[in-house]
Specification:
2 domains, signal, three-stranded antiparallel beta sheet, mainly alpha, two-stranded antiparallel sheet
Length: 406
């Protein structure tokens, strides 16, 4: 999904968030008769005094207008209310593609909520929106909430975090220590934003004197999506508990899915030969075994430190320690039971180890007297070459854990 679609909504969203921060806490002049005072309100009506949830952009506008209305003279009230109504109508007429904007992870699925990676959430929701046609649906800007604006900010910081950590890791000598510090700073910013969202959801929407908006029916506007993304979206769907995520598919299942695809006639092949090859492959997978220690647990199952580092060798060692503690380090399992995620982890572990060996080699060369003018460019090339493993692999892993193959 092209991220450039976020720019215009982001500006408007952040502007509304700034307005909300000042307006919702601003004092206003209250006018009440004796029977309208809080003390005179019956207890049975107390629940009506507070409407919980993050305020929408229209709530922000009406709250601000309600505060300012107390300073408008009686003769100007009618004209003031008319201007407010015109502004609300103009804002309501602006429509956006909701699924082109980031959404909160708990609204996408259980696994995205557990991972809480804004890029993973955006990709999972976007691919499913393309597949189902939701990407073409629009909604009024007035219905967007301040939490939605914060979600745009979280996604923006998640994107900026990648080049920031990469640049920090390239700093000579101290890059190894600087990289996690920079990552922690961005993680702290996201945690603070999540806390603000939670406070908004648990708080009350500011009262106002204006009636709710009467918005028309939902409309659709075709979004031009690149064909490769359309093709990819047609093959996956969000894991909702009724299907097996891609990451959990075993190699035996992958073989059978491939057999079924080739049987469908999508590709002209020798069907009999294909079935013989698939049967032989299934026999091979069932009769050959691999050490269970190579089938690593997920990093979030091994503790917060391992999850934060998310480095292949660290995860492997932590998983090995857990297997030793459970007495299962010498167990073996058939290749047929190896899952897609296990194979993916082994591939990234190999690349991580290769990167570490390269770093060790340049360090030894430095001790041997090789000039920094030679080693520093090599180190930078190494960081760039292995950047997809460091920053792209966790995103791919999150997506295959959160989506099923159609």
């Amino acid at each position: 999904m092209p991220l450039s679609r976020l720019v215009a909504p982001c500006v408007g969203s952040l502007a509304a968030l700034t307005l909300a921060s000042g307006v919702l806490l601003a004092p206003g002049t209250a006018h009440a008769t004796a029977e309208d005072t809080l003390a005179a309100t019956p207890i049975s009506d107390a629940a009506q005094l507070c409407t919980t949830g993050a305020p929408t952009f229209d709530d922000v506008v009406t709250a601000a207008a309600s505060v300012l209305r107390g300073m408008v003279g009686p003769a100007q009230l009618a004209a003031y209310d008319l201007r407010v109504a015109d502004f609300r109508a103009g804002l309501a007429a602006v429509r956006v593609h909701r699924d082109g904007l980031p959404v909160q992870p708990d609204k996408v699925g259980t696994r995205p909520a557990e991972i809480d990676d804004p890029i993973v959430t955006y990709l999972v929701n976007g691919l499913d929106a393309v597949r189902t046609g939701r990407i073409d649906q629009t909604m009024s800007v007035s219905r967007l909430t301040v939490s939605d604006a914060i979600e745009v900010f979280i996604l923006a910081t998640g994107i900026v975090k990648i080049p920031a950590r990469l640049a920090a890791g390239m700093v000579p000598t101290v890059g190894f220590f600087l990289k996690p510090i920079v990552g922690a700073a961005f993680s702290g910013t996201k945690a603070l934003a999540r806390a603000v969202q939670g406070s908004l959801d648990a708080g009350c929407v500011a009262p106002n004197v204006y009636p709710p908006l009467e918005l028309g029916a939902a409309t659709t506007e075709l979004v031009q999506v690149p064909q490769p993304i359309v093709d990819l979206a047609a093959m996956v769907m969000t894991a909702d508990g009724t299907c097996t995520p891609i990451a959990d598919l075993t190699l035996a299942t992958v073989v059978e899915r491939s057999r079924a695809f080739l049987d469908s006639g999508a590709v002209q092949i020798d069907t009999a030969a294909m079935h013989r090859a698939a049967d032989d492959l299934q026999v091979f997978l069932a009769s050959n075994r691999v050490a269970a220690v190579m089938l690593m647990r997920r990093s979030d199952e091994l503790g917060p430190l391992v999850e934060t580092l998310d480095m292949g060798p660290v995860t492997f060692l932590a998983d090995l320690g857990a297997d030793l503690a459970e007495g299962t380090a010498l167990d073996t399992v058939p290749l047929a039971q190896v899952q897609v995620e296990n194979a993916f982890d082994l591939a990234t572990l190999t690349l991580d180890i290769t990167s570490l060996l390269f770093s060790a080699g340049t360090s030894i060369a430095g001790y041997a007297g090789v000039a920094d003018a030679v080693l520093t460019p090599l180190s930078i090339v190494q960081k760039l070459a292995f950047a997809p493993t460091d920053y792209g692999a966790p995103i791919v892993r999150g997506v295959i854990q959160s989506m099923c193959a159609v």
